Structure formats: C-alpha cells, structure tokens
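Human: My hope is that you can spare some time for a protein that puzzles me. I am handing you a single protein, as its sequence and its fold in token form. Could you go through the record with me and say what the backbone is doing? Take your time, and here it is.
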Amino acid sequence: MLHLWGRITSINVRKVVWAVQECGVPFERTDAGRQFGIVDTPAYQALNPNALVPTLQDGDLVLWESNVIVRYLCAKYGAEGLYPADLAARFDAERWMDWQQTTLNRAGGQAFYQWIRTAPEQRDMAAIAASVAATVPLLRQLDAHLQRQPFMAGQHFTMADIPIACEVHRWVNLPQPTPHLPALERWYQQVSTRPATRGVLDIPLA
C-alpha cells in the first residue's frame, strides 16, 4: 500500500492526495509537518533530506517533490489520458505543472501566508497587495488559456489540472475580491466536482 507523509493543510500534500484518489489506489497518510512534527526526525530525513512534505513511499521507491509525485502516480496508476501518452500533450501538461510551482505559487504565496497563517494584528497589507498585483495577471493568463480549450492540457482532464486547481482553490478562498474570469471559473467548477477532490478542495484553508 502507498504511504504518504504530510498534513492535508499543505497545498503540496493536497495535490498528491487528489492524484492518488484520482487513480483509485489505496493509501495511508501520516500527518507530518508544522504542528505534527516528524519531519525533523532522522527517520523521516532518511526518506526526505529536505525535511518537507509530502513524501511518498511505494514499495522500495521513495519520492519527494509534489508535482513529481503527481506525475508518478498518474503515469503508474492513472486511467488512460491522465498521464498523456502523446509527447506533445505530455510536455504541455508538464509545462503547466512547472509553471504552477515556479510562477503561480510564488506570486500568490504571500497573500495566503498573510491572510491565513499570520495573526490579524501582524499582517503586512503591503505584502498582500504586492501578491495580488503579481497574481491577478496570471489568473487572467489562465482565463485566456481556458477560453481556447476545456482543460489545462487540451480536451481532457490530465495531471496538469491538479496542481493548478489546488492553487486556484487556495486563491479564491482568501478573504479578498477576485476578478470575474468566466473561463477560469467554468473550469474550476468542473474540476472541483470530481469525486477525487473530496477531502482536498472541500476543506478550509489553514
């Protein structure tokens, strides 16, 4: 059975939980990180020297880095198309997954941190404003992309939709206005009703 370490409040753990549920594979999850500790133990760091979550163990294979784990799960256990067989489609999906980590997450991270993980009296409103200013153009980019096709990598739901939707879920649930972006909203509503999102996109930010 697959074993996953990581607290569900982590966006990176949420991605993996969604992916493994999408694949229909039994798994166990151990809360780790922040208030749960574990990540600072020698035993955990023998699995993941970064002392971060998530970490996945599948038999003798141990993986860390959330989007890599999503790719692995979809490639090994996913239904046809979740990990595209066609190279052009696959690397289109890969591109958006990397963009989520390197661009969208970095832009929106400060707003999330300030609103959700910072005491109200300590919030840095300038940091929130800067995060909003960086993120809204990226959301508009997503909206323009999704005006041309129903899913991130084309006509069908793929692994690329998982990390982007987790990021959008985090953003739209912050206590601040979000611009009306019809294509993005249509896509997010569609993917968030998938059964595999239960316990991922239907729980509050923390």
In short: The chain has two domains: 2-77, 87-197.
